[in-house]
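Regression test case RT-17, inverse folding.

Input:
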């Protein structure tokens, strides 16, 4: 007991000396925090270590949802149970998606902001940069076609000018595949519950008439 108190005392003295001489603290003392913004926009303080991989962060989601209001937790659980969510690093300008196998997990540092988004899919006949938000506001972005295709490949960020919900719109080409017994696309939580969601990844699947 006495010797461990002595060790703590010595450690504290060492740290004070380092600070006085302008040194930096060892990592174990500065162990950092990461902000997780859930899909409803609520911020959660996480330890860096809790965000070291997709699977690790997922194990902490039940605890994160416990910090939310019951209706916020419920709608997020609905999407999580259907695997219709993902994570992205938000640097204020870009959203970099954190896939399960992504290298991005190793770039997370103290102060990094991770956003959880709800993933929705839309089938379109033509790509556009226009997005009608769930609040009813039509958000138009004026870009030429080449810029648009480039932006959609990377994922274009649109912040609704009225309600400030954030959407990352990504485009991909695909075919409509109808599978026997597949869940209908309109399987959604109630509109009231859905309105609590603030962060989205919208994947637009471009289908051609002859595909
Ligand atoms: Zn809106």
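Golden output:
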């Amino acid at each position: 007991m006495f010797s461990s108190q002595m060790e703590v005392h010595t450690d504290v003295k060492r740290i004070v000396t380092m600070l006085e001489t302008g040194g930096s603290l060892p990592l174990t003392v500065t162990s950092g925090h990461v902000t997780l913004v859930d899909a409803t926009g609520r911020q959660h303080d996480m330890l860096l270590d809790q965000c070291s991989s997709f699977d690790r962060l997922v194990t902490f989601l039940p605890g994160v949802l416990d910090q939310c209001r019951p209706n916020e937790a419920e709608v997020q659980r609905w999407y999580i149970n259907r695997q219709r969510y993902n994570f992205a690093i938000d640097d204020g300008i870009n959203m970099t998606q954190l896939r399960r196998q992504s290298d991005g997990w190793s770039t997370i540092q103290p102060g990094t902001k991770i956003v959880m988004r709800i993933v929705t899919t839309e089938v379109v006949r033509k790509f556009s940069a226009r997005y009608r938000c769930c609040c009813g506001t039509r958000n138009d972005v004026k870009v030429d076609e080449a810029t648009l295709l480039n932006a959609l490949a990377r994922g274009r960020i649109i912040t609704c000018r009225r309600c400030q919900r954030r959407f990352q719109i990504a485009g991909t080409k695909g075919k409509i595949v109808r599978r026997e017994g597949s869940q209908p696309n309109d399987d959604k939580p109630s509109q009231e519950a859905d309105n609590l969601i603030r962060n989205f990844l919208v994947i637009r699947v471009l289908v051609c008439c002859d595909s």
